[in-house]
Amino acid sequence: MSVYTRFCEEELDGAGQLKHIRLNCPEDFNFGYDVVDGIARENPQKRALVYCSTEGEEREFTFADISKMSNRMANVLAGAGIHKGDRVMLILKRHYEYWFAAIALHKLGAVIIPATHMLTVDDLVYRIHASGVKAMIVTAQDGVPDRVRQALSKANHTAKLWCVRGQAEGFCDMNAAMEGAGEEFARVATHRHDPMMLYFTSGTTGYPKGVIHDFSYPLVHIVTAKYWQRAQEGGLHFTVAETGWAKASWGKLYGQWLVGCAVMVCDFDNFDPKQLATVINRYGVTSFCAPPTVYRYLVRKGVPDMPTLRHASTAGEMLAPEVFEKFTARTGIELCEGYGQTETGLLTANFAGDKPIAGSMGTPSPLYRIELRGADGEPVPVGETGEVVIVPDESGWLPGVFVGYLGNDEQYAHVWRGGVYHTGDSAHMDKDGRYWFDGRFDDIIKTGGFRVGPYEIEHVLEQHPAVAECSVIGVPDALRGQAIKAVVRLGGGFDASAEMEKDIRTFCNRRLAEYKWVRIIEFVDEMPKTISGKIRKGELRARA
After folding, report:
1. Whole-model pTM above 0.70?
2. Most exposed of 26, 389, 457, 528 (fewest Cβ within 10 Å)?
3. Does 296 fall in a domain?
């Protein structure tokens, strides 16, 4: 029996559909000790992680392996002065060392800050300043150590530094350090409401917000893995996500291990549809999850046979009906969409027992009371657009919903106005109770599976000498879902031209992480503005 049954009570209907679930989270719950070490004691040879890389490396780790290797890393970190409550940034791409590090930090009671290797020096400076990191464990690849050194210098901040997969100036070699470390680690007392994880998520009017989750967070992904992604006991689940994003927590660790399913990790830099299909077939992947961008590429290139695959799911942006239909026609598998945020667990989805319909977010998770409310705070009628909000029950505990924004109590209070959590997303519900996404109430851009706030890009654009005013929006794109478009008013003495467009794009994109690159530039003589002088992004989107 999977370990998850110890931490929840489920109620299913006659068709096996989840109708109700209640999480039972012990006060001292710690995923590292209670799940990883627990499985390692009871079934040490149970498969936990299957790893491959584009360089031909293949590894398979059991829960006994993960338990021992995380203990080794925890001993290395503790010996260097990393303790409960310390914040540690992980920039580990898709390296299997991420799983050692995450569990080690859980055992220490430290706070994990996952980050993507695509961050620029300025991106890192902001995160270092905001979080006050005590340590960083990073990949030796892609120039990451050099950018980290530059960022620490620019931030006038010091941190203990380790790297994996190579050596770098100023960094200790974590792989070497672990070789001599002990495989036993005494349990550190943690509480379920202690901070466990800090994700930086895009903001619309400022820099990224630090989203804090506590030690109860992993349990919310029981529903994510079992009832949406259909990860199964003894199966192999493959989610396409780098470890720097919250999607990794959704699909590459917590829920999957809780329900007894191993995770598939493919360490690659450049997406290749054929490569993914090869991995699925070579290792016998049983369930797969990826953003719609991946499915669009698969459909465009031709979906190959994947005989072991039993289920496929998607989230992160709108899924075009033609992609749904072509993928289903080719594989016989209906794509199940899901919806949630970095701040939350899975809120709605096409769950086990539902009939997926292309474009639908599905039905609300039994973990939450979801409502659609209008500007007056009242529920909207069926068929009308409202904001997706979460209403707490009488206990006041919303499992998986973040516990604060780092250093920003005002913003946290704002999203909790009126006693409910405001997602900022709009949707409508049909007569059958299915939810349909209508858009963001704010200006977040969802491109290629990434969430991007316009402020960061506008800040860079404004540094170009020719740019007098600018506004960044997302526009429909056949492959990415949305492409990033900059609307620019030039200053005096500068003329719009193809050369100017290229110059501004090059200037901007050299200073931005690749997933934030500007794809389109439009020059205008005047910006549409409100009476108070704010640029009307809605009008820019409407005429795009």
Report:
1. yes
2. 26
3. yes
